[in-house]
């Protein structure tokens, strides 16, 4: 947009920036905060190093409505419960900010552009991922970049917002925004999304309930970054230490069945296959698959969080672990640990005509909670021949009682 170019270099970031700054007489570097604790520490070190060279290093907040834990309780403590945090953000006007019109910036390009390496030099292929999957393939629903993000937003405002509050949990309907990956990578800001919401609501007041629900989802993302700021190891440690005593089973065979979508519970399996095939998963199904791993199989939530981190296009360092801990009951504003989703009734409620399950489980026949497929492939591990006419790997009632006992005995 400003006539700039992407320069790709591989090596020590500080040394590369110093070299480029000296070569092109750079006096100011502008970037965005990531609010990832590890990256923030690196940026602080980089800032101090550059300042000794006379280079100003400006980090701006472009990805959140408010810096993590900037809004606090009356006693000055960070919020640990979502609803009061949401109310405080609304009261503070953070959900009403309008962005300024685009301004033309006349950047003066260099006479000679710096040399750049090809993207392939970074080694971002399937050999670098935990799953062994090349994640540059099969994501035809995404159009990366600002133009793709704005197009997605416009499509949702026009076609999906009017259904959002009522049908966002329905797996068989297109009622979600699909903006999460664009937000994750800074291709669109939450301020831009808010502006579009308010404009739609202004012209169509009947959209208010749906607009409010979407705003609350944006604020959940804010809340998650607040938790990450309070607990920088959110992906590794229970937010509530009282859950450290849970005795996990961690059965690797059952974990593999969950990964590959061969548990025998159709909605769980459809969700895990959607994840593998597309890099996303319906928001309702994320909760159901996470609950199944944690409660039905008693497998450590960190195993699931790591798998989602590797597979999800929109996985970020705050929302991913915060949501997993919410399901596990170990998070700050968590679902009660005794809430255990029934994957059978969840399928009947949120995929009543089995449209979602048929889409991701070829040959699926409604009326049975196990897969009825003519295909022997496990979907995830294509080289593994798997009989999909299987019964559920664990009985729901038995699993529920086992989980309640394990969670109740976590202090013993």
From TrEMBL:
<feature type="site" description="Electron transfer via tryptophanyl radical">
    <location>
        <position position="248"/>
    </location>
</feature>
<comment type="similarity">
    <text>Belongs to the DNA photolyase family.</text>
</comment>
<dbReference type="InterPro" id="IPR036155">
    <property type="entry name" value="Crypto/Photolyase_N_sf"/>
</dbReference>
<feature type="domain" description="Photolyase/cryptochrome alpha/beta">
    <location>
        <begin position="1"/>
        <end position="65"/>
    </location>
</feature>
<protein>
    <submittedName>
        <fullName>Deoxyribodipyrimidine photo-lyase</fullName>
    </submittedName>
</protein>
<dbReference type="GO" id="GO:0006139">
    <property type="term" value="P:nucleobase-containing compound metabolic process"/>
</dbReference>
<dbReference type="InterPro" id="IPR014729">
    <property type="entry name" value="Rossmann-like_a/b/a_fold"/>
</dbReference>
<dbReference type="InterPro" id="IPR036134">
    <property type="entry name" value="Crypto/Photolyase_FAD-like_sf"/>
</dbReference>
<dbReference type="GO" id="GO:0003677">
    <property type="term" value="F:DNA binding"/>
</dbReference>
<dbReference type="InterPro" id="IPR002081">
    <property type="entry name" value="Cryptochrome/DNA_photolyase_1"/>
</dbReference>
<dbReference type="InterPro" id="IPR006050">
    <property type="entry name" value="DNA_photolyase_N"/>
</dbReference>
<keyword id="KW-0285">Flavoprotein</keyword>
<dbReference type="GO" id="GO:0009416">
    <property type="term" value="P:response to light stimulus"/>
</dbReference>
<keyword id="KW-0274">FAD</keyword>
<feature type="binding site">
    <location>
        <begin position="176"/>
        <end position="180"/>
    </location>
    <ligand>
        <name>FAD</name>
    </ligand>
</feature>
<dbReference type="InterPro" id="IPR018394">
    <property type="entry name" value="DNA_photolyase_1_CS_C"/>
</dbReference>
<feature type="binding site">
    <location>
        <begin position="314"/>
        <end position="316"/>
    </location>
    <ligand>
        <name>FAD</name>
    </ligand>
</feature>
<dbReference type="Pfam" id="PF03441">
    <property type="entry name" value="FAD_binding_7"/>
</dbReference>
<dbReference type="GO" id="GO:0003904">
    <property type="term" value="F:deoxyribodipyrimidine photo-lyase activity"/>
</dbReference>
<dbReference type="GO" id="GO:0071949">
    <property type="term" value="F:FAD binding"/>
</dbReference>
<dbReference type="InterPro" id="IPR005101">
    <property type="entry name" value="Cryptochr/Photolyase_FAD-bd"/>
</dbReference>
<dbReference type="GO" id="GO:0006950">
    <property type="term" value="P:response to stress"/>
</dbReference>
<keyword id="KW-0157">Chromophore</keyword>
<feature type="site" description="Electron transfer via tryptophanyl radical">
    <location>
        <position position="301"/>
    </location>
</feature>
<feature type="binding site">
    <location>
        <position position="164"/>
    </location>
    <ligand>
        <name>FAD</name>
    </ligand>
</feature>
<feature type="site" description="Electron transfer via tryptophanyl radical">
    <location>
        <position position="324"/>
    </location>
</feature>
<dbReference type="Pfam" id="PF00875">
    <property type="entry name" value="DNA_photolyase"/>
</dbReference>
